[in-house]
Amino acid sequence: MTIRYDRRQVKTKQQLLQALLTCIEQKGLDHVTVTDIANVADLNRGTFYLHYQDVRHMVQQIMNEKIDILTELIKQVDPYEHGQYADQNIPYPRIVAILEELSADRQFYTTILGSKGDPSYVLHLKKILTGALYNKFELHIPGTSSAPVPTHYLLAYMTSAAVGMIMYWLENNLPETPNEIGAMIMNIANHGLIVSSGIREKPQSHK
What we know:
The chain is mainly α. The chain has 2 domains: 1-52, Orthogonal Bundle (Arc Repressor Mutant, subunit A), CATH 1.10.10.60; 57-207, Tetracycline Repressor, domain 2. The chain is built from 10 helices and no strands. The mean pLDDT is 85.
């Protein structure tokens, strides 16, 4: 009985989520009401209130769930391991896993983070990603005063660039696979913008 009830809950939440995204795409998040969502989902308002307090609470709760998943995936990223894959010119599997998760939820991210959603969620996502990356990198980067770029500036640049690149990919209907985008991110991270853009050739390794 419990399993059947849980499945019903999951199905109902999925209906509500799909209805939310449809409503945002039609009229923008600021104008979406509980009644709108219930009508599109073909459910009553009481069913909505069994799960969420209001529209903003629904969006925040779902966003938190998505961010928790992404944070756990980011925790598995190892800068040194990434470097080993980069040396072989192979996309780092743990980065590809993050991209696969994002592509699976493409409609959610493009709708909530898009022009009809709420820009504050983009800033919130960047803040969470920066924190997760900083916690990861500070374990591996000495952070000495001799470093050309201080770690906090480096991470601010990396997260803004990565989020912008990924959003562009999602908004353009995923023309590349997660593996291909992973290769691009690896290329930029490993060789920088000048080499990745083709302005300067990649330095040849000396054996």
